[in-house]
Design brief:
By secondary structure, this protein is of the alpha/beta class. The protein folds into three domains: 31 residues, no CATH class; 242 residues, Glycoside hydrolase/deacetylase (TIM Barrel); 146 residues, no CATH class. It is built from 15 helices and 13 strands.
Length: 444
Amino acid sequence: MGDAWALVGRRQRAAICLGLLTCITAYSAEAADCPGHPDAIGTFRTLVVDPHEHPRIGTMQYAETLPLRDHEVVLTFDDGPLPRNSNQILDILASQCVKATFFEIGRMAKAYPEGIRKLIAAGHSVGTHSQTHPLTMNHMPIDRAKQEIDDGIASVKSALGSDDAALAPFFRIPGLLRAEVVEDYLASQGIQVWSADFLADDWRHISSARVYDLAIKRLEDKGKGILLLHDIQARTVAALPKILHELKARGYRIVHVVPATPQNPATPTEPQDWQLHPTSEDVATSHWPKIPNFVFAYAGTLPAPALSDLDWRDGGSMTLSEDRAGRIGHGVPLPRQAPWPRQSPLPPEAEAAGKALPVPALSVFEIKEGLRAATRGLTRRAEQSSGPDDHEAISAAAGSSARTLRGRSHPAGLRHAGGRGARNAAHGRGGALKHLVQVRKRSA
Ligand SMILES: [Zn+2]
């Protein structure tokens, strides 16, 4: 379905189409664009974006986001490929004729290049997510950050071989731990930084039902946007069919985003289409809230060295039950609770400045019931551990001071506020990718 057609609303189209046989045919094609799956949600339209014009997107952190219309959703998946779960995500998307955007980790791509090729073959957009997924990009030396970015791109391109031009110039910073110098470098390379509009907390130890609930609730709150998910998570595999079913039932439409090329120019948009339009509640925030101290603990680096342990190549299918998901936790990277940002409304100052948030708002890091105690325990274990097989270690401390954007046209990135430096545990035998976290809410 052409973009010009997509620009017209459903009702308007129905009106336009009255009496026009060709239009009726086209309209039917839209509803039936998933052969053999009449109940599929399908992909409503393709949005072509120019990273040079809009280098930073996602209202969780930036003033701009994708120019989506009400009830349009862009699905994104991070941290793959991890065959067992990523393949199931691919199957689910294929069965629904849904096209998504994947942010792939370089070392995962090296370990499983076929996983990258499958994404391209299925018509999805593929961006990158660094080489080793360091949760320290907000304060690492820029040369190291460049290396992470460049190596990640090189690894994914290598997996694609002669098809490497298919890689989209899209990048998501690990943990959304942004820094202006990193964003500037990416912009200089013509790469678009993707934050998100909302999350479903699918890296936490929550049920797939909860992932579903959060995805739908947060989407309903916003009405449209970029959803960040993880295709490496069993609970996401379990939740995705229900999410897609519910999206269709509620009248949402999937939008596939691709980068502009000389042959495929950007979809025409107006500047304001990319702007966040704050609700009255958002406007009530007159300045940035205090930023909490928070600590990511990210054990090991990546599961790549532990392929055998992860049982990646057994080809067996995994049931979708939470029980099963829990039992494979030793091998599949099941992150612990992590301080991922939730939706953080962008105050008008930020919108006016047209720039990024230093970090997500305080509410983002609100500690849920029991999390504080749980994460303290994890941290203690991590700090005490020193054996080669213990992979729980504090990886980074990313405390940051509060600051406001008022009057600043170029807000600085995160300031590293005296947390412990990164200490990645060596990733030995039996290692697994884990997002461990300790969250400490700073007193206001
Ligand atoms: Zn990630």
